[in-house]
Amino acid sequence: MMAKHNGYDLVRPMFTSGKLKVFKDIFKLVPKSVVAADLGKEKGRFNRLIEDPDDFIYQEIRLFSTDCDLAPFEMGMLIETEHPGKKPEADQQKAFKYGAMRPMFEQKKIEVLEDIFKYIPKSTVAANIRKKRDRFNHLMNHVEDFSVKDIRAIGVLCELTLPEMFQLVEAQYTKQKNNKAL
């Protein structure tokens, strides 16, 4: 295994000091080519991902966050600042129950992604983010395969930010990992 690029060590201090404000700032510390190689991405494809991070999958965000000594939700903060999600259209029909998800998250009654489905059926969420039920079930069993776009779409429905959704996905990932270890 190759040694980690020294620039990664600068990310956390720059983030905690408030000097690192947006996702692209990371590449002032760690060259894009290094990050692309570390994530196993071709440079051209990686440049497109930087311009539209919604196409990253959660597993890549986790790995990149770890290299940068950031929690995934902190990486989500950087992405959201630079690439705010689209606001839902006023005429977008969604289940009335979605409105309860933010307060439930704030009251810690929703702590992992699957907690949402105690209140809103998976099939409803899948349909609302335009995923086939089988694909959505696969993603729920392998949350690391969710795209940032899909995570963000669920967040928009539930009135949760990308960093908040990353917290739920990370808790779900940890739970799945621990269950597989048993």
User: What's the number of structural domains?
Assistant: 2
pLDDT averaged residue by residue: 92
Helix content: 40-55%
Please provide the count of β strands. Answer: 0
The rough form would be described as globular
Report on this model:
The chain is mostly helical and 182 residues long. It folds into two domains: 8-82, no CATH class; 96-181, no CATH class. Helix content is 55%, strand content 0%. The model has no long low-confidence stretch (mean pLDDT 92).
Give the gist of this structure.
The protein is mainly alpha-helical and 182 residues long. It has ten helices and no strands. It has helices at 8-16, 32-39, 43-51, 58-67, 72-82, 101-106, 122-128, 133-141, 148-158, 162-181.
Summarize the SSE layout with pairings:
Blueprint: H1 8-16, H2 32-39, H3 43-51, H4 58-67, H5 72-82, H6 101-106, H7 122-128, H8 133-141, H9 148-158, H10 162-181
Helix pairs in contact: 5-10, 9-10
Question: Which characteristics define this entry?
Answer:
single chain, 182 residues, mainly alpha, 2 domains
